[in-house]
Write a structure and sequence with these properties.
Rossmann fold
């Protein structure tokens, strides 16, 4: 077991009134410890604000005498974010061309829709097609498609497959909509036929506006007596129609056709895709292309070639024309009491 002994007491009586720390100093020799010396050049009040700085400012002190805000405080102040600039809507462009009357009797002779006529199978079939086109146009516009979303190209692989017939009927049907209007453009510059189909007189048209910057395209548009239906002729014939369509002016001219009119649909009756290269150029400026194929006439290879030429269009639909057989036995128009 470890031997214990009492801690020796310092000499003298331990009941002399010395404190524990004093007796420890006597025992362990701590007399050499002392506080650190104070520098002689220490500034009085260093690290503490002066009494003058803590004094309140005079009530009527001028603004120029207010002490400057420290840089750190200025950096902590919240930044003012400028509101985004709101661009004004483009001014609506009005069509200023002369109003003409559509020849209803000529429409009937060609088997086209009668604007004020009875409901037939043709009316109902075209209604189904236009519903798909209008719905796709609205969705494309909401997705940011801009003016291009309002343009529809009606084309066919080869001549004689019914593209002008379908384009005209679509325009007549869309004109009957309560919240839409339509502009039918004759873009078959080599063989224009829209004016003769509707019984309208000719005049300057799309090609004139593309070739001459002094001509405003809106002045070439014909207003018809059918509410909501406008027509833009093909204009002067030229051997450079494809080159004009490929120029930078084309986008500017076509944008003016719908500027300020978000509910207007523009339908282009183009030349056949395999007969003229202008159809492929127009496909670059439209949101939808409706390719008309004639039953028992259009070949598969011709259809595939046409689709390849029009591939710059983001939305291509097919329309089978002159079909005589329906697997479901559907016969539109008979419900209203009229055969198709």
């Amino acid at each position: 077991m470890t031997e214990h002994s009492k801690i020796p007491l310092p000499s003298g009586d331990n009941r002399t009134g010395k404190s524990l720390f004093e007796r420890a100093e006597d025992l362990f020799g701590l007399g050499g410890l002392s506080p650190a010396p104070v520098p002689a050049d220490l500034v009085d009040g260093a690290g503490r604000p002066s009494p003058e700085a803590l004094a309140p400012l005079p009530e009527n002190m001028p603004v120029a005498d207010v002490p400057e805000v420290p840089a750190a405080a200025a950096r902590a102040a919240p930044e003012t974010v400028a509101a985004p600039e709101v661009l004004p809507e483009p001014e609506a462009i009005e069509f200023t061309g002369a109003r003409q009357k559509i020849d209803r009797r000529h429409l009937a002779e060609q088997g086209l829709i009668q604007p004020e006529g009875k409901v037939t199978a043709l009316n109902e079939e075209i209604r189904i097609v236009k519903r798909h086109l209008l719905l796709a146009a609205r969705e494309a516009r909401r997705a940011g498609g801009g003016a291009r979303a309002q343009r529809v190209l009606v084309c066919s692989p080869l001549p004689g497959e019914g593209k002008t017939f379908c384009a005209t009927n679509l325009a007549l049907s869309i004109a009957a909509e309560k919240d839409s209007e339509v502009l039918l453009v004759d873009a078959d510059f080599a063989k224009p036929s829209i004016l003769s189909t509707l019984g309208l007189k000719g005049g300057r048209g799309l090609m004139d506006a593309l070739a001459d910057p002094a001509i405003r395209v809106e002045d070439c548009v014909i207003a018809t007596d059918l509410a909501g239906l406008y027509v833009l002729p093909a204009g002067s014939q030229t051997n450079s129609d494809s080159e004009y369509l490929a120029s930078g002016r084309t986008a500017e001219v076509l944008d003016r056709l719908t500027q300020g009119a978000p509910n207007r649909i523009v339908i282009f009756d183009s030349p056949p895709a395999l007969a003229a290269s202008s159809a492929a150029e127009l496909a670059k400026h439209v949101g939808q292309a409706l390719v008309v194929a004639r039953a028992d006439v259009t070949g598969q290879s011709a259809l595939e070639d046409a689709l390849s030429l029009l591939s710059s269009c983001p939305d291509i639909k097919l329309l089978l024309n002159a079909a005589q057989f329906s697997p479901s036995g559907r016969r539109f128009g008979t419900y209203y009491g009229y055969g198709g």
